[in-house]
Write a structure and sequence with these properties.
With about 425 residues, the protein is α+β, with helices and mostly antiparallel strands. Helix content is about 45%, strand content about 15%. It starts with 8 loop residues before the first helix and ends with a helix. About 40% of the residues are buried.
Length: about 425
């Protein structure tokens, strides 16, 4: 990712101070106008949550700042915190966002049921924490450049909150980010991460004010599919492009590093399906630091991982099908066992991180996900068993077969593209 000047108060003051006087005034006016444009794009609930914080304050570099401004202008973007009414129901417009974007973009194995989300929002409303920023649901509407206002429609959805990262501070957690297909390529990832970061900044500020603590906002964390994850070739191949997008967004995959320098998985999402037949779901855990943040070490990872479990307990407290304490404990057990095997963490661009089949060689859970995703079976046509996934020799067999299948899929896709 290209280097950009960090947007901090001190560096901005030094940078502006080197300009001639007329440009100094223009720069200050321009920045004020930019912030005003972003403020106009925010709904009343979001303004209540953020207070004096503007999402541009949460941009980690000039590139993200420019992308946010461009998307807000070109798409006529509007952003709002979704809340439930006294009957625990989302507004029709927000419900439409869930129906059109959320459930269409996330498979059942990875998505908390919508009824559970609404129930959790109702619990927070009853507790008086609805707009505290620790948990939030952001909905975006807009229109493509050149379209009239009556073409405005739901275009993106973001759900997130804050996680404790130990002694160093807190991080924003972007749990779900989704953009409608025809609105991709307009900078919405940068917009969503900026607004999530700003919402978490507001939550940390309120937390510090309430507790007297002095926590810093270290950056953002979220989950992504490893290279090669998917049940069909199209989805598996798209992970290459998606990783490049996250590279440009400044994301870094967090991996455990053993004494012999092996990279091992560090994270799993608990089973959120109502029928509970998916089991733990491994995902890459990524971190995007804010400028000047301290290193994200194992202590920060473990603290964020435990706070992540508490985040899911917010869903479990609703009593709705999909998430319960037993599933959370099972995922925590997997993570604890993984964390016990290393003392150092390694951070790398998503495109450089281990693929699904790379990790399946050492991890039974990932081996199972890979076998099921690629539709791999034993020589006699039967499914691989738990005993197979625990067997290093068979795990290597699964990894080799998956790697070869992915190479064929990529070769076929490239040949088809050239034929066009």
């Amino acid at each position: 990712m290209a280097a950009h000047r960090p947007l901090t108060a001190a560096s901005d003051a030094a940078w502006i101070g080197r300009l001639p006087g007329g440009q100094r005034v223009r720069s200050a006016l321009t920045q004020a106008a930019e912030k005003a444009a972003v403020a106009r794009a925010m709904g009343p609930n979001l303004k209540t949550l953020l207070g004096d914080i503007n999402p541009l304050d949460a941009a980690i570099d000039t590139h993200q700042r420019e992308q946010m401004l461009s998307a807000i202008k070109n798409l006529g973007l509007r952003a709002e915190i979704a809340v439930v009414d006294e009957n625990g129901q989302l507004s029709p417009a927000d419900s439409k966002v869930f129906e059109q974007i959320y459930m269409e973009n996330f498979p059942a194995a990875e998505a908390v049921p919508v009824k559970t989300i609404q129930a959790a929002m109702s619990n927070r409303k009853a507790a008086g924490t609805e707009l505290d920023g620790k948990r939030f649901t952001l909905c975006y509407t807009g229109k493509l450049p050149g379209e009239p206002e009556d073409k405005r429609r739901p275009l993106a959805f973001a759900q997130g909150g804050t996680l404790d990262a130990g002694e160093n501070g807190m991080v924003s957690f972007a749990e779900y980010l989704a953009v409608q297909d025809d609105f991709r390529g307009h900078g919405m990832l940068h917009v969503m991460l900026g607004f999530v970061n700003a919402s978490a900044m507001a939550a940390v500020a309120k937390h510090n004010q309430t507790t007297g603590e002095n926590n810093a906002m270290l950056g953002a964390v979220w989950e992504i599919d490893p290279k090669g994850r998917g049940e069909i070739a199209e989805d598996r191949l798209y992970t290459i492009q998606r990783n490049r997008i996250y590279d440009r967004a400044g994301a870094l995959v967090v991996m455990g590093q053993t004494n012999d320098e092996r990279l091992v998985p560090v994270h799993a999402q608990p089973d959120v399906t109502p029928d509970g037949n998916t089991g733990n779901w491994h995902l890459h855990f990524v971190y995007r630091p804010n400028p000047g943040s301290p290193a994200f070490d194992k202590d920060a990872l473990v603290a964020a991982s435990r706070s992540y479990d508490d985040y899911f307990r917010d869903w479990a407290a609703t009593g709705q099908p999909g998430v319960d304490e037993a599933k959370i404990v099972e995922a925590a057990r997997y993570k604890d066992e993984s964390h016990a095997g290393f003392e150092e963490v390694a951070l790398m661009k998503p495109s450089d991180a281990p693929s699904d089949w790379d990790m399946s060689r050492d991890d039974p859970l990932v081996a199972q996900i890979v076998a099921e995703g690629f539709g791999l079976v034993r020589g006699d046509g039967s499914s691989y068993s738990d005993a197979d996934f625990a067997n290093p020799t068979i795990r290597n067999e699964i990894a080799d077969r998956a790697a070869a299948a992915f190479a064929r899929e990529l070769e076929e896709a490239n040949a088809a593209a050239e034929a066009k």
